[in-house]
Amino acid sequence: xxxxxxxxxxxxxxxxxxxxxxxxxxxxxxxxxxxxxxxxxxxxxxxxxxxxxxxxxxxxxxxxxxxxxxxxxxxxxxxxxxxxxxxxxxxxxxxxxxxxxxxxxxxxxxxxxxxxxxxxxxxxxxxxxxxxxxxxxxxxxxxxxxxxxxxxxxxxxxxxxxxxxxxxxxxxxxxxxxxxxxxxxxxxxxxxxxxxxxxxxxxxxxxxxxxxxxxxxxxxxxxxxxxxxxxxxxxxxxxxxxxxxxxxxxxxxxxxxxxxxxxxxxxxxxxxxxxxxxxxxxxxxxxxxxxxxxxxxxxxxxxxxxxxxxxxxxxxxxxxxxxxxxxxxxxxxxxxxxxxxxxxxxxxxxxxxxxxxxxxxxxxxxxxxxxxxxxxxxxxxxxxxxxxxxxxxxxxxxxxxxxxxxxxxx
Length: 410
Ligand code: ZN
Ligand code: ZN
Description:
This protein is of the alpha/beta class. It is 32% helix and 23% strand. The chain is globular, with a radius of gyration of 21 Å. The two termini are 25 Å apart.
């Protein structure tokens, strides 16, 4: 499926590492990879030429916390939907992400080898998919979708759930090996309470140290890593001391949590847009009333946590974590982060830092020889105002992925 060469001519190409535009530069992509970035590049007659004069050329964006199979925000109901229907809805959700400029995403619960393969084969037009299979949750944890009125034998871990309930060191080792056998890029655990879950407290820690360590151990053996859902300082410490490499959300962290993130060389993946969207329209999309009330608590705190982590020098990657119909707000994360962080740092979170987290440094999030030829033509200057990326329908003119134009609204 090799694309013909693509020559993107005369744009201002953003070097995310230095924060400078290379003015009037060309990007030449051959066989899906960047071959050269420079002035007045030449190529063969069969190359597709894209005029980028007057546009900013950015590397394709990376969202490190999505759930492509979360076709509804009612995660309890999702498990009853046919896999075939969810897959069709997932295809549409992934296509929309790509049109917003996300050419690579990390799925933190739900996506599997089948979807990644369908994307790689071109059956689904969407972001390249780094998947972790099903997230692990203890009984009554954040991934347990049963209400208090349901019984233990009603297994929520079947079919199309984002997670599965697994308890105990031995069972977790088997579950981890299963996900790794199916090609997981990382493993995801719920190490503390959450917002969208019906029975857990947000201030709880989840899993024992021994259980978390068993998952980390299995991931490391396979040269993979573990990421943990954790909101509070206590759950972040709980996860990091077990060897977890990235913390999802982290809204209720403190200064000590930031020190621990730095000491452990770990990543923080805030997902602020999801609370904004849940507050705006969560109830409309099936979020239960109890969960909706937890949202207020974590939204405000999340902005403070982001600032704290930034000042403390933690590595911060881009995330969104939207469910169901709220996924259309994905790009609003740029606007929200831009309120507290410098634009360049917001951009790095969704490019170079995200690439580090995914173990894809030099492959994505950068326009340099050897990288996947994923790029956007943007109208406006995201370095001056990163919120231009929050309105992709207005400002993202063209999206190319692996050297192929996949979206062009000009
Ligand atoms: Zn989570
Ligand atoms: Zn999530």
